[in-house]
Known about the structure:
mainly beta
Amino acid sequence: MSYRCWTKATKHEAGVPRRSxxxxxxxxxxxxxxxxxxxxxxxxxxxxEVDTATLYRVKQLFIRSSVLELTTATDTFQFGLNPWxxxxxxxxxxxxxxxxxxxxxxx
Length: 107
């Protein structure tokens, strides 16, 4: 069983989402949620290697979206998700949720 959604993703950001040129250069691809891992392009992130998983629920003006952050021993991945995407049922990890309010430029 798998689920997929379109995403913007970067390995050059960590922590609370912010405005950054890294999001301009971010990869655009399908984010696949598999039973044992996530894949996005040539990135494959086994859930067994994830140290922390955080879902930032972002509100900016009238637009809501979310950023999924996965931290492994070597990398931090952030995935920008559309408002209708709910990754929670597809991730078999303890997921921290944090509400964030951004300025006038969307991630």
